[in-house]
Amino acid sequence: MKKKVLVLNGQYAPGYKGGGPIQSCINMIENLYEQFDFYVLCADRDYKEEKPYENIRINEWNQVNHAKVFYASPKMQSLSGFKKILDETKYDILYLNGFFSPIFTIKPLILRRLGKLKKTKIILTPRGDFTGGCENKKIKKYSYIYLMKMIGMYKGLLWHATSEIEEKDIKIKFPHAQTFIVPNLPLKFVVKEHKLGKKSGELKLVFISRIFPKKNIKYALEILKQIENGNVIFDIYGPMEDENYWAECQEIINEMPDNIHVTYCGEVPHNRIADIFELYHAFFFPTLGENYGHVIVEAMMNNCLCILSRGVTPWDEYIDALEIGAELCDQQKFIEIINKMIISNQEQIDQMLEYNNKYIAKIADSTLDIEKYYKMFEQ
User: Fold this and answer.
1) Is 367 helix (H, G, I), strand (E, B) or coil?
2) Which of helix, strand or coil describes residue 35?
3) What is the pLDDT of residue 134?
4) Going by C-beta distance under 8 Å and a sequence separation of 6 or more, which residues neighbour residue 335?
5) 106-113 vs 79-88: helix axis angle to the nearest 10?
6) 200-228 average pLDDT score
7) What pLDDT, on the 0 to 100 scale, is given for residue 147?
8) How far is CA 186 from CA 20, 179, 370, in A?
9) In this predicted model, what pLDDT tens digit does every residue of 307-331 receive, in sequence order?
């Protein structure tokens, strides 16, 4: 008999504004549904949206691909609402996404601490909450962690780290944590023909992510402002999460030299991302930190090279091999990378994409990682 896994995450399909954790959950479920029965408890609307999703049954179970999904209304997201749902749902494993999630992680753990939750295995994955982050929130975050450790809120949990970087971050905060290192699972990779041409002197760059300090779009703009030669297009896609931060970005955009053309293209649903990546030579993503970065993998899968910050994602092997990444303290190196990409011709880009496709084909073979998930859930 298959074990039942109840996944709690703020958003799930058809939502996309909650970023990578949504895709992490979808990919996990679609890779493991033959071994486990999955149930998902999430909000009835996308991140920061005021209206519920269309064509769903609210506060009821819906069949969504290979999972049963309960879309909870705001009223059901109270402690009493969570207790009612969790009491009425049969599950063997509770799988929580996001360390700082105030509703879908913290409230269930409060119920557990109060003895109102049935005793069962609980697995918590931080989903990058300890990686990167914004300096102005660190004091609040460390204060919360200290308080929660004092009252034993996270005692006895199992921790799912999706990379060695994330395990290290967990161990810094919780030295005695029992951790499993199990990578996120990617989509199935299908090799695509590279259709976008490349002329020396021209470069098409894209940024797809939330407009938020951790994703570091401002840094990317600061680099491009210093590019003096070549014709560069830089298109930006993503939800506008921080208007003040974007205002700072716009000031830099207004000061761009004439050879750099920056456009904010708005939000994009997840089902369009693959097609968008195919329109660009490279994904410029100097993030402050990613425990995985599904958007990075999707760029690789769609013939879009990834220019990344070094030492804060699991993809250093990739950027080192292609020489298209640098530490964030080294702006000059990023400038050199962009200039090198500008003067590259079709043959040079094709050589880079050949490595890109071999690399992602290897990464997308999830056989061993699926076995690790099985062990984590079964232990």
Assistant:
1) helix
2) coil
3) 43
4) 223, 226, 227
5) 80
6) 96
7) 77
8) 11, 21, 11
9) 999 999 999 999 999 999 999 999 9
Confidence of residue 93 (pLDDT cuts 50, 70, 90): very high
Q: Coil, strand or helix: which one is 360?
A: helix
**Could you tell me the pTM of the whole model?**
0.74
Distance CA 52, CA 30 (A): 24
Q: Is the pLDDT at 189 greater than 80, yes or no?
A: no
For β-strands 61-64 and 67-72, DSSP reports them as: antiparallel
Residue holding tokens 């084909």? Answer: 361
pLDDT of the residue at 126: 87
Does the pLDDT value for residue 136 go beyond 50? no
Residue 7 backbone phi and psi in degrees, to 5: -95, 125
- CA–CA gap between residue 142 and residue 169 (Å, rounded): 13
C-alpha span between 315 and 13 (Å, rounded)? 26
- Reply yes or no on whether the pLDDT at 140 is more than 60: yes
Which two three-digit tokens encode residue 40? 């998902």
* 240-252 per-residue burial string, b: 16 or more CB within 10 A, e: under 16: ebbeebbeebeeb
Q: How far is CA 54 from the centre of its chain?
A: 24
Angstrom distance (rounded) from CA 341 to CA 334: 11
The residues facing 258 across adjacent strands are none
Say which amino acid occupies 176.
H
Q: Which domains does the chain have, with CATH numbers?
A: 3-185+366-378 (3.40.50.2000), 202-363 (3.40.50.2000)
For tokens 């929580």, name the residue.
96
The answer to whether 297 touches 321, Cβ cutoff 8 Å, is: no
Cβ atoms of 290 and 131 within 8 Å: the answer is yes
Contact 45, 13 (CB under 8 A): no
* Degrees to nearest 5, angle at CA 369 with 368 and 370: 90
Which DSSP letter does residue 186 get? P
Looking up tokens 């962009």 gives 338
Q: Under a CB-based contact definition with an 8 Å cutoff, are residues 15 and 46 in contact? A: yes
The two beta strands, 67-72 and 93-97, are: unpaired
37 φ, ψ (degrees, to nearest 5): -95, 125
